[in-house]
């Protein structure tokens, strides 16, 4: 008796379920499913997320370790076909990985961003580590009007943050520097206006000087997160001023390079770098946010904290401080953060966010490790 051929039950599923399945694999593999059958031929053109990796430095033994015009041309044809068809408005998230030192890849990246007009744009920027003056040079990023969320990540300090322009600069609602090696220079956040920006996340960046985040350029900013943002060296004065009239949430944390160790613990020395201090220490932190509701400060140390106004909306306050031995490189002397330093910082913060309410407090209790 002949064996009965099984039915293709998966292909009979609705489009939304098949698209959900395809979304769990890499975009390159999703495109290849077009060869399965006529049912699958155009499914990948409806995926909400499109990801193109042009080339990545350090991927030894991989085809991505070198630039390839042929590979990038194939990506361009794929996106052009999709954006010329009836599904041209279905790209919701565009992810691009490319090298800032390869003009061909930069040109295609600009074209992909314009073609997709995605509401969410994620950029992973690469460049060699032996550039002159460790600087990949200034560059600009033209955002379509549809772009509401922008996230950037770099693999090396040479890549500067871009000058953001175009209709998307006015429409952008969320901006993220995600776990990047980017160096934020003084004035960068004041040079470009983001009139619609509501969320700003700065994570893992390095400050070459002081920065200001103000309502002058971000009048609608409501949520600000600063995580593991350090100075380029211990001797660099890095002050942060947050003067935001509409800000409701502020979260500042420095667990990476900012948390002292118990004096009795085994000391692990940090690897010396030319672009990042071994310990995060702000020379000054100023806050003015009359509509602030959430104040979350963890493992950050500033020599001086000044809180001008937070109003009566404050409902959640978290302050986490640790005394102990500070992280250091092999060529740096041992330093300690004393309880007296934590007491002063705690007092400055509390007196600022709740003026008059902590006048008679003489003792603070710190959570043990």
Which percent band covers the strand fraction?
15-25%
Radius of gyration: 25 Å
Order of helices and strands: HHEHEHEEEEHEEHEEEEEEEHEEEEEEH
Oligomer description:
single chain
Question: How would you portray this structure in words?
Answer:
The protein has 369 residues and is α/β, with parallel strands linked by helices. It has two domains: 48-172; 184-369, no CATH class. Helices cover 20% and strands 24% of the residues. The chain has eight helices and 21 strands. The protein has helices at 15-22, 27-32, 69-84, 103-116, 167-171, 188-191, 255-258, 339-353; strands at residues 49-53, 93-99, 120-126, 140-142, 149-154, 163-165, 174-177, 183-184, 199-203, 206-207, 211-214, 223-227, 230-231, 239-243, 249-253, 284-288, 294-298, 305-309, 316-320, 324-325, 336-337. The strands form five sheets. A ten-stranded parallel beta sheet has the order 1-2-3-5-7-9-12-15-17-19, covered by helices on one side. α3 packs parallel to α4 (103-116). The longest helix is centred in the first third of the chain and has 16 residues, at 69-84. The N and C termini lie far apart (72 Å).
